[in-house]
Design goal:
Keywords: Autophagy, Hydrolase, Metal-binding, Protease, Repeat, Thiol protease, Ubl conjugation pathway, Zinc, Zinc-finger. This protein has 864 residues and is α+β, with helices and mostly antiparallel strands. Among the domains are: 153 residues, Zinc/RING finger domain, C3HC4 (zinc finger) (Herpes Virus-1); 118 residues, Zinc/RING finger domain, C3HC4 (zinc finger) (Herpes Virus-1, 2-Layer Sandwich); 146 residues, Cathepsin B, Chain A; 39 residues, Helicase, Ruva Protein, domain 3 (Orthogonal Bundle).
Length: 864
């Protein structure tokens, strides 16, 4: 066969085969027939993007699709796949795009679609009236690059003809994967029209939610039948709860629930337990209104973005995108844009910033060949491969080339004043991979760039076992000092974090008088139904934000182990370590009383240089007394009450204080709980407890307290049973985070198998307690640059500590009224100049809006 191929081979990249070759095609393909497959249902055909690069059929070398695996490869990478797999037969796809002049436009219109027989989903913004396409397809046999033109060869074996036709007409693989996830979200639930809602008087507040069966405050779902707020299940990425929403459905058969925090005027995330999938509810606004939630108070602007006050947001869009400036486009390595796939700008801006960091460049682009050589047989599903591919696409300059001279001349001749834009890259394969299995990022809705950054960091850490972990540069330890306001005793704990969330105190605005006057005029205009006044943006000093971060904050549901009761507590946070790269998120978003997500319109004078040294943690100070290491009483669910517990009325409670509170009109059971949880310290203290907890769903439920047969509340080592082993699923979740199995089991046993409390227990019970005093020494001796530590715990997280002095190098800005709508752009400082990345448009920035960003990225300054 090899001699036959050499005799009749068409040189690679050249014209048609001769008649003799066509006559012997059947015999020629016989040795390769076992390797040629017809795509079956479920097979993904990647024919519009290379698995290792952003080459496509429109690239100079076209795209090669393996006729066995249906993976696509550019000319530079197809040889690697052939050597690794031995697959010899590929379909070579090439599309030529030609711009049609005005004179030839009419003549070309009848022929434009004749040669375009490939079903390709490419992503160029071509106007069908200005361009024509010419498609070519041929089979190529490796390693001799023997070419068989398609589709005009009748002598091909039937199997080959069927396979070629199926590949040519198949949708691309990752597009099908995305469509599947989107289609699941748009199915109307069969329960939507006839949903029964109980008239039980439940009203849901706009914030402060928690699961009614546990203490979870994340991943909460509102049951649309009875208004119960319950936690979801634990997800692989570390989010989730204890599955109480599903348990509630099994007990009640109430089918529909909406995820709290996702409600916007455009809809919400709704799940049907009965149908076991995400669904649509056309009557969701009515169903939410039943519980006091109004989701339709926002209007839409002409560009389709949700908006409450149109005029402020118009100014914001112009300022952040620098619309009034004639920006100069830049090209080359590091200046490659990312095309918007439809509400995917949160992904593009985040990845642009990450790959401007040397550690990410070195981990993925620096190891590009090694990652590619050791990639699995399906590189589209390998995180490291797709990260390396994205990094190379952004940094190589291969997809960011300046216009050639002929294009500039044509632009001048046609009097086109539109700025020439680069091609950029289209990260569909990357988005399909990193969003796989995630309920939010797998959708085509806008997302929060902050949440996506944490999601990517999580993926990087999970896929960096045994290799360099570039996300180490973001990780830092936070010391939380919690103080009981009554006993004055304190507790110090540590936690890992990646982002510093900075409050934005509008009350500290330097133009507060202007804001008050504007609000008065706005309300007057609203009452008189006249035009709104010119909006005023709050100007908040950065020092005020830093001061708000460092001040004590109240702790919700604080249980004092010194008082053995719930009490008032305050918490302050400090840095145990400073990261190599500091990410600051401005807390601009909040919920109004009408449940409408609002964005605070403000500007902050963010500094180019930042010194946080004074925020370094100091640890336990002389004269401070630690809170006892005791666990709060375990409140058991209804079905376990009475087993090993004394009835509530057996608890010693100051009945006179209960009567004083009851006479004020509060439910008697709530009064009993208030007196109990404040340690019988009087009606006044109990009254304060009632005010702080009266909006909780279980406020008026009967008190469930531990038996008083013991001398006092059980300690952490006594409360749970140590005989039974914790659930293996919970142990696996903790060990997947890097904690030893023995420590995970011990933590779960000590916290009655509560995952959230188990994590806190791990950080407050380090294995190596002999070095516990070293944290207090950090303030006296500044650590070395880039010094690694494990937070006094050999099994703990790797911390890269150093001085707390930083310089701003990037920021991500958001336009719109909610993180679930609007648009993101980013500015990055490169070669001493600021560059704006607005999707695929990359230009030099003239007025970087550093005062209006959402997330800021600082790099640590060296000691010098």
């Amino acid at each position: 066969v090899r001699e036959f191929l050499h005799q009749f081979a068409v040189p690679f990249g050249f014209g048609q085969s001769n008649a003799k070759m066509a006559a012997d095609l059947g015999e020629l393909l016989v040795p390769y027939m076992p390797t040629i497959r017809v795509p079956r249902t479920g097979d993904r055909v990647f024919k519009s993007e290379c698995a290792f690069s952003y080459d496509s059929p429109e690239s100079d070398g076209g795209l090669y699709v393996c006729m066995n695996t249906f993976l696509g490869f550019g000319r530079e990478h197809v040889e690697r796949h052939y050597r690794k797999t031995g697959q010899s037969v590929y379909m070579h796809l090439k599309r030529t795009v030609k711009k049609v002049g005005a004179a030839a436009r009419h003549a070309a219109c009848t022929m434009r679609h004749a040669p375009c027989f490939l079903y390709l989903e490419l992503h160029q913004n071509y106007n069908a009236d200005d361009y024509e396409y010419e498609d070519e397809a041929q089979l190529v046999i490796f390693p001799d690059h023997f070419e068989i033109p398609l589709p005009n060869i009748e002598e091909l074996p039937a199997l080959v003809t069927i396979a070629c036709d199926a590949v040519l007409n198949a949708p691309c693989g990752f597009r099908k994967q995305e469509q599947d996830s989107w289609e699941e979200e748009v199915q109307v639930s069969k329960h939507a029209r006839s949903l029964r809602q109980l008239d039980n008087g439940v009203r849901i507040p706009p914030s402060g939610w928690k699961c009614t069966k546990c203490e979870m405050r994340e991943n909460l779902w509102l049951n649309l039948t009875d208004g119960s707020v319950l936690c979801g299940k634990w997800f692989f990425d570390g989010n989730g709860g204890n599955g109480h929403a599903l348990e509630h459905y099994r007990e009640t058969s109430f089918p529909l629930a909406v995820k709290l925090g996702t409600i916007t005027p455009d809809g919400a995330d709704i799940y049907s337990f009965d149908e076991e999938e995400a669904v649509l509810d056309p009557h969701i606004s009515d169903h939410l209104a039943h519980f006091g939630i109004d989701m339709l108070q926002m209007q839409k602007t002409e560009n389709g973005h949700v908006d409450n006050q149109v005029r402020p947001r118009v100014t914001e869009w112009e300022v952040i995108q620098e619309s009034g400036s004639k920006l100069k486009a830049v090209y080359g390595p590091g200046y490659t844009g990312v095309r918007n796939l439809g509400n995917s700008c949160y992904l593009g801006t985040t990845m642009q910033v990450l790959f401007s960091i040397p550690e990410f460049q070195r981990a993925y682009v620096g190891n590009l060949q090694r990652i590619y050589d050791y990639s699995p047989l399906d590189p589209t599903q390998d995180f490291s491969t797709q990260m390396a591919k994205l990094g190379h696409g952004l940094l190589s300059g291969q997809y960011s080339k300046p216009p050639v001279k002929s294009e500039l001349i044509e632009q001048v001749m046609n009097e086109e004043h539109k700025l020439h834009q680069q091609k950029g890259i289209c990260p569909r394969m990357f988005k399909a991979l990193v969003s796989k299995g995630h309920p939010e990022f797998s959708s085509n809705r806008q997302q929060d760039a902050h949440e996506f950054l944490l999601h990517i960091i999580n993926l990087v850490e999970r896929n960096s076992a045994g290799s360099e972990n570039p996300s180490d540069v973001f990780r830092f330890l936070v010391e939380e000092r919690t103080q009981c306001c009554q006993s004055r005793k304190v507790r110090y704990t540590q936690r890992v974090d990646y982002v510093m969330q900075l409050p934005a105190p509008v009350e500290a605005a330097t133009n507060r008088e202007e804001l008050i006057a504007y609000e008065a005029k706005r309300q007057e205009a609203q009452e008189k139904m006249t035009a709104s006044p010119e909006p005023v943006r709050a100007r908040v000093p950065f020092t005020a934000c830093l001061q708000a971060f460092s001040e004590p904050e109240n702790v919700l549901d604080f249980w004092s182990s010194a008082l053995q009761a719930k009490s008032a507590g305050v918490k302050t946070s400090r840095f145990v370590s400073f990261p190599e790269y500091l990410v600051l998120q401005i807390k601009k978003f909040t919920f109004g009383l009408d449940w409408v997500p609002k964005k605070i319109d403000l500007s902050i004078d963010m500094p180019d240089f930042l010194d946080l040294t004074r925020l370094r943690a100091t640890g336990l100070q002389a004269g401070e007394e630690e809170l006892p290491d005791l666990m709060p009483p375990i409140v058991l669910p209804e079905d376990t009450r009475g087993r090993g517990l004394s009835p509530p009325w057996s608890v010693k409670i100051d009945e006179s204080a209960v009567m004083q509170l009851a006479e004020m009109g509060f439910p008697q059971e709530a009064c009993r709980k208030a007196v109990y949880y404040t340690g019988n310290m009087g009606a006044e203290m109990a009254f304060n407890w009632i005010i702080a907890h009266m909006e909780e769903p279980d406020f008026a439920e009967p008190l469930v307290a531990p038996s008083l047969s013991d001398s006092g509340p059980s300690s952490a080592s006594q409360a749970p049973s140590t005989d039974s082993q914790p659930p293996e699923e919970s142990v696996a979740i903790l060990t997947s985070m890097g904690f030893p199995r023995s420590q995970a089991v011990q933590a779960l046993k000590a916290t009655n198998n509560n995952l959230e409390r188990a994590l806190d227990w791990i950080f407050t019970h380090p294995d190596n307690e002999e070095d516990s005093g070293s944290a207090s020494d950090m303030a006296e001796t500044e650590p070395n640059d880039n010094a690694f530590s494990s937070a006094n715990d050999p099994a703990g997280p790797r911390i890269k500590d150093g001085p707390g002095r930083y310089e701003l190098f990037a920021f991500i800005s958001h336009m719109g009224t909610s993180t679930m709508s609007g648009h993101y752009v980013c500015h990055i400082k490169k070669e001493g100049r600021w560059v704006i990345y607005n999707d695929h448009k990359v230009c030099l920035s003239e007025r970087p809006p550093k005062d209006m960003a959402y997330m800021y990225f600082y790099h640590r300054l060296s000691r010098s």
